[in-house]
Amino acid sequence: MNAIDLPLKNREVLLTGGTGFVGRHLLPLLLAAGARVTCLVRASSKTEHLPRDVKVAIANLGTGQGLDTALDGKDVVIHMAALLFGLGWQDYLQANVPAARHLAEVSAQKGCERFVLVSSLAATGPCAIAPGVNDSTIAEPVSAYGWSKLLTEQTVRTCLGDRLVVLRPPIIYGSGDRGLLPVFRGVKKGLAVSPGWGREFPVSVVHADDMARAVLCACRPEAHGVYHLNDGQVYTMAGFCDVMGQAVARVLGIEARPVRCLHLPLAVMAVTAGLSSGLGILGDTLSRRLCGHGLMRAPEWNLDKYREARQLGWVSDGRRICEELGFAPKVDLLQGMMEAAQGYVREGWL
Q: What CATH number has the domain spanning 3-176+205-231+315-331?
């Protein structure tokens, strides 16, 4: 299915999270589909990399200030902005839920026809057995991040009803993603980590280009409810990192070598997550006392991420979006890993 076949031609689209890494993959597809796109950004956001045809609207999702003007005349809202790393439950709940509520309330007032919310597999919960959780699975989040995404979905649905379409992706990877950058750097040295001693850790993944295609599918008029997605395969964490190593070697032009995957005991991971969270909280407290504001970014490895890592796996079933909306993942793992590595090299990160 081509982007130009989707019903977005001459439609006014408001996008949050457009300056993030998935946004960079989505914006060209929206423009190719004929949409007139406005990115909702903070006053401090860097927007120089946005495509020339994309408009910018400044607003504060936390307070709702500026949303009334930004949403004037918009037909479709795509909400991807969210807090991914926090120091505690309150960080996720205070950031993700109110922002979505403000956006949904004004969208309802303005009569927006479609609201696409990019949520997370974390809102459904873990599963280690293929084909994985599906769109009718009862949600059982295990982390604060997952609960915040589920509450966000429920809050937006209260405001917008059937105008809401939810996507729950698994691990998203691709160029511009800083979340997996430490893993790529470790793999470059021949080392990777998998949670739990003496076990595998099965996961579903999707490349950012396919994630962007799924968002366009969710804009179709027949789209409804909650959709999970993936690239059609299930990987162990060790296998995932091994392919990553092959891609890094090809991109850097070095000899490929097997990646040694360390299966860390959960007790060790719990200690390191606790130390990382504790140092983050200490740094945040000191920053508030000395500078008047908290940390700009919480540690990426923390107790909340440990709550997700200690599960048996994260596998999802993406068949419904394929059958109903014609979604067809196009990026295989090696191809996607090479695209990501090439992006890291361009940025000077790898």
A: 3.40.50.720
**Any idea which residue has 């403000």 for tokens?**
102
Of the candidates 264, 268, 275, 208, the one whose C-alpha atom is nearest the C-alpha of residue 237 is 264
User: Which DSSP state fits 139?
Assistant: P
Structure tokens at 239: 């296998």
Listed as own residue / partner, the contacts of 66-69 with beta carbons closer than 8 Å and 24 or more positions apart are 67/40, 67/102, 67/103, 67/106, 68/106
Cis-peptide, bond into residue 182, ω within 30° of zero: no
Q: Number of helices (H) and strands (E) in the chain: give both, helices first.
A: 11, 13
How far from the centroid of its chain's Cα atoms is residue 87's Cα?
Answer: 18
Residue 124 contacts residue 143 (beta carbons within 8 Å): no
Using DSSP's 3-state secondary structure scheme, residue 69 falls into helix
Per-residue pLDDT of the chain (350 residues; tens, 9 = 90+): 444 455 799 999 999 999 999 999 999 999 999 999 999 998 888 888 899 999 999 999 999 999 999 999 999 999 999 988 888 888 888 899 999 999 999 999 999 999 999 999 999 999 999 999 999 999 999 999 999 999 999 999 999 999 999 999 999 999 999 999 999 999 999 999 999 999 999 999 999 999 999 999 999 999 999 999 999 999 999 999 999 999 999 999 998 888 999 999 999 999 999 999 999 888 878 877 877 766 567 888 999 999 999 999 999 999 999 999 999 999 999 999 999 999 999 999 99
The per-residue b/e assignment along 335-347, b for 16 or more CB within 10 angstroms, e otherwise, is ebbbbbbbbbeee
Angle at 278 between CA 202 and CA 139, to 5 degrees: 40
Q: Distance between CA 195 and CA 264 in Å, rounded?
A: 6
Both tokens assigned to 235:
């990987």
Minimal CA–CA distance to 144: which of 212, 101, 95, 185?
95
Which among 5, 310, 21 is positioned nearest to 176, based on CA atoms?
Answer: 21
H-assigned helices in 228-265: 237-252
